Amino acid sequence: MACENNTVNKIVRLLSAKQAEDITVLNVEGLTTLTDYFVIATGKNVRQTQALCDVLEEELAKDGIHHVNKEGYRSGDWILVGFGDAIVHIFRPETREFYDLEHVWQDGIRVDVSDLVN
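Given the sequence above, the corresponding structure tokens read:
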């Protein structure tokens, strides 16, 4: 079953269509005041992490959804893009393993998005 948040669902579909790996969605509502959802994904290299970020910005803007913050784009190791109720974390594999957000935010509820991923 998809997430109840349409923006999160669209983000997952876009990331999946561009071959992001290991897409994970955590519902962190009530655990932080920053956002309701973390979307975590892996790109194979810097070029792919940047391309994933680019496609999110371009496609969501078509629906009037614009990022409120973006960090790490230049280095491409860990790109954080905030879309209000969803923060997207796009990692290179080594960086994702090092920071292990799924463990840090283990109190978050993992959302099953398997039906949205190719």
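The two ends are 14 Å apart (CA to CA). Try to locate this feature in the token string yourself.
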